Fold these 3 entries.
Entry 1:
Amino acid sequence: MTVRPLAEADFAAEAPVLVVGGGACGLIAALAVRDAGCEVVVLERDAALSGSTALSSGFIPACDTRFQASAGIEDPVDLMAADIQRKNGGQADSAIVEAVCRRSGRTIDWLAERWGLPFVLLDGFLYPGHSVRRMHAHPERTGAALMGALLNAAEGAGVDIVGNARVSALYAGTDGRISGVRIERPDGGGEDLGCRALVLACNGYGGDPAMVRRHIPEMADALYFGHAGNRGDAVRWGEALGGEAVHMTAYQGHGSVAHPHGVLITWALMMEGGIQVNREGRRFSDEHHGYSEQAVSVLAQPDGIAFNLYDQRLHDLGLGFDDYRAADKAGAVRRFESLDALASALDLPMAALAETVEHAARCARGETTDPFGRDFTGQPELQPPYYAVRVTGALFHTQGGLRIDATARVLRRDGTALPNLFAGGGAACGVSGSQVWGYLSGNGLLTATTLGHIAGEQAARLAAKA
Ligand SMILES: Cc1cc2nc3c(=O)[nH]c(=O)nc-3n(C[C@H](O)[C@H](O)[C@H](O)COP(=O)(O)OP(=O)(O)OC[C@H]3O[C@@H](n4cnc5c(N)ncnc54)[C@H](O)[C@@H]3O)c2cc1C
């Protein structure tokens, strides 16, 4: 049973605030609890912390930050909120969008100033749908480095982190108040731990094949690139408590995972002039719409395969990314002196490929327009030597989740808040609307970081009153 009656609990100890899941959302929530001077325990099913956060590129969108100010970039809350809502067709709850955008800059600045996290503002290109540069990253530009920095900060702040602690059930009263959780250990043992407030930071359901098949059947057989331990527990608990799971058909896909190497190829290559062609040597979409929905477009091509095609200038840009360097090292990135050589090595029809590349060049020169609607102007034509990577589409993480209010409290179906339950990151409904095309670059870590921050503050406040 996912939610058990209080009478069955045998609490070995109590913490004012418990956090389920030790990814970005969980650790940031815990830092916020410690900032409020309150004790907190993070319960993580894995022995060592990773989550999807460590697997990610670690790029966090935020507006009105001091890093943007130093670069002379103006990015008011309204601009970021409008970008997010434009991408999802206005489907996301505007109060949540406003809350996360408003909080985004404060969270980045607070992580930097209060907890010493190093950040850089990414430059060189704009992510699809971003009006200005707002992607912040650890200087190493990896999710693993972001997680490492968060973990150092959490340990320094006195956050109690317990690994090998899978939360298997919540204990709740008839009013929905959470009194604690059941923890299962890998050796079959377990214990009950009490709390005054609980934060669900255990992400979505990408690691539960049955849930993926039910909610997003088009990705049921696709590669899942996120953390396997994210099995939809938050949704199951929230629903059992009378909460509501919304936009469950939403997710972040990615249309550029090197195949069969399984390494992410940065979308910056497409944004700055690269194209994707199928086995027939033809383009099949506007690559600038977004990498998330491109997963579906790529999987719809013959054999579910596409080829990223670009040149030396873009290869040099790619080398600035850890994943790209790994793909290059693994042999996924191939260089060809001419288009002929590329077509013959990759078994692509030369005539069609030459026509495709020439058409893109004519679009870049402003001589014709792209039937898919992409604006090629302002970017140089592709030049030999050419580079190519064979890619496929993948599921990165789910975006549907528990309905919350702007203070990260989990809501019942009637709109009232459960007494002491909070959710953030992939455990809560995101800001991408209901479809794959609604995902704006960075929506994942945006809600993980900001809602973690908000949930931690609110949980600490509640625990102090209880
Ligand atoms: C390859 C890749 C690249 C990405 N790049 C970006 C990017 O650059 N920018 C961006 O915004 N987003 C990106 N994302 C999405 C981003 O990684 C997620 O949105 C974000 O990490 C979610 O954070 P989280 O804290 O909610 O979840 P996670 O980091 O997944 O943490 C959840 C934790 O909960 C634990 N857990 C689950 N169930 C339980 C349980 N019952 N008991 C105890 N512990 C439990 C899990 O083991 C896990 O450690 C990317 C995703 C992938 C896969």
Note: The first strand starts at residue 3 and ends at 5.
Entry 2:
Amino acid sequence: MRTIDLRSDTVTLPTEEMREAMRTAELGDDFYREDPTVNRLEALAAKKMGKEAALLTTSGTQANLVSVLSQTKRGQAVILEAEAHIYYYEGGAFSDVGGLIPILVKGHDGVMSPQDVESALRPPNSHFPPSPLVCIENSHNRAGGTVWSPAQMKALFDFAKDHKLNVHMDGARIFNSAVAQNLEVRELTRYADTLMFCLSKGLSAPIGSIVVGDRDFVDRARRYRAILGGGMRQAGVIAAAGIVAIEKMVDRLRDDHANARMLAKGISTIDGIAIDLNKVQTNMVVYDVSGLGIGGKEWVAKLNEAGVKAGALEAGRVRMVTHRGIEKEDIEFTLRVVEKAADESRRK
Ligand SMILES: Cc1ncc(COP(=O)(O)O)c(C=O)c1O
């Protein structure tokens, strides 16, 4: 049976060009900084993001963790949006490993205004842990792939600088955000001191994320990566695919966004399913099936039987993510499956 996997853009497989680049990559020992392919990827990534230096990490989680550790001390606090991936999904690593305390701020579609963050600031006295870092997420996963505009980022960045805060951006899908807004990615990255982005999501590389920032920060992050067991040797086999990801795979994210839009519009016409089309801004489609009298998990199981894989969030919220493995015909098929499942649920 045909299976359409809309659980995440992390399911993308490497392209033939990536596999060939991996096979023929020039290699060395990256602990000695002698892997020419890793060095090339890190230089390319730093340039693309407009920062001094870059570091290849094994995963997005590791990239966020080394970024946060490099800008804080144990016992300090980190300001995060209440549904931030760093807080919600990364195993509490910043607390477990870093001894850090989260201060959560409720955003609007994942975006925090200076006023939102201001309300979280504590006066500098011994009652409170110092909070030197604010983390933002662009695009925002749990908000449904919503984007921060350059103006929103600038407002927060200026506020942060006025209050001596560093800004770290979880930019796992920063290229989705840039492409959706027709921007050069640097128009976004300039408003973050540090950021990470993933090679292994919509960009289709099999492994890896990148951390960027100034040279001192990246040196500290490199040390934390080693401590966490993320130091690699002939990592050029991974980096080779990452180079193809950055050079060749960004523009096609437009297709994923068009497919997400088509899927969302189709779903919006189905009785009993609630969806806010304004929130469908990149490659994610989040909708609510509570109106059909079915839970998200039950709904996802039902679609799965018909050959469509999706993700259940909580209660009736369901997420579908488009990516390189998904074509227009797959969206048409998915819409037929969703319509049939909705009909059956309504009749129950
Ligand atoms: C916004 C965001 N940040 C970080 C990550 C973590 O990436 P990884 O799964 O490579 O650890 C993800 C993964 O889905 C994500 O969506």
Note: Residues 59-61, 64, 85, 137, 141, 170, 172, 198, 200, 209 surround pyridoxal-5'-phosphate (CB under 6 Å).
Entry 3:
Amino acid sequence: MTIYAGAIVDTPGDPFSGDPGGALRQDEALLVRDGVIAARGALAALRAADPGEPVTRLDGGLLVPGFVDAHVHYPQIRAIGGLGLPLLGWLEQYALPEEGRLADRAYARAVAAEFLDGLVAAGTTSALVFGSHFAPAMEELFAAAAQRDLNITSGLVLSDRKLPPGLLHSPEAALADSADLILRWHDRGRLRYAVTPRFSLSASDEMLDACAQLLGKGVWFTSHINENLAEIATVAGLFPGSRHYLDTYGRHELVTPRSVFAHNVHPGDAELALLAEHGASVAHCPTSNSALGSGLFPLRRHVEHGVRVALGSDVGAGAGLFLPKEALQAYFMQQLLGPAGLRLTPVHLLYLATRAGARALGLDDRVGDFAVGKEFDAVWLRPGDGSTLAVNLRHARDTTDALARIFTLATPADVAGVWVRGVRAGSAACPAPR
Ligand SMILES: [Zn+2]
């Protein structure tokens, strides 16, 4: 057992329903036993209840729950920074050529390690990972994630048209390869499987039918939707009988409480209503939407329809793996929307980077906040002395103000420690570097 003492901050409430300030909680100390939070409260009270327990002091900065990334592409970690193109051109010139290289298993192994170590270094301990088009590359990702004990949900990316031939599967091969991966990795430790058609633009009705069969195995589902106007027009042309983009998935019964759709920058009201009705979630990827010029995410309309929204870094079209940067960009975009935007507070930003993702991924009974009984996944954000963030934290009025300073100024260099189910990353028990 260990007692962690410091400024421990989380959002057990939901700032999107009711007073945002009421969603925030701060405590002095957590007692962690076998990787699980056993008590929280005042340090003196925890020490009195368990005298003799070692105390790990985390002085300065804030300790927050491990970040939860609801949409991030593992094969693109070496392809960040392709600026200057909209979605379909960027895919063709930057993303897909790199994704093709993961056909080489040794290459995929190196990429998987770089990707997962990058997540941990950025404070992300849970993620819905958009996988590779190659089953051996998925084996490498799952094995490396198991070694690091990360909460990773991922799956083989499926397409049967409109991509380079090396990235395509027949629906029959998609079924066989996915079923094998599900058998080997789903619900093994902290790993889960997600059926992952790239987007309906590159997946025929036959492929989406295969996805529906796989979903019957109790796994998760993720794909892209409504990211870019040219993409949406292409999908409409490919599915002349569908009512809207979401219907291309919905008519195969792929819109469920276990479904997470990335982007949704340009949804119709009927789509938002359907997402809410089926309990599906949306992963908002603000730096990616900005870099590709995809548009300004209508967060207010999602919230008003009752659609769950989480944050994704979407790397490589995004600006790195650090979720506080995504939260800040989400804030910027809502500001730019003027009256149509939803004014986000620092409490919203912490919620979006942690508990919102845990809820979207169905992990909120295990991670996303520091409630007693949850697994201790945590990030200690503590800037170096003399940095502009350190100066600002010294002048913060209260915890909410400190969060505002952190979300505005922090970078991965301010991640002073990461715990994965009670084990500090970079320690002898956990191989991820820190
Ligand atoms: Zn994506």
Note: The pocket of zinc ion is lined by residues 71, 73, 130, 224, 262, 314 (CB under 6 Å).
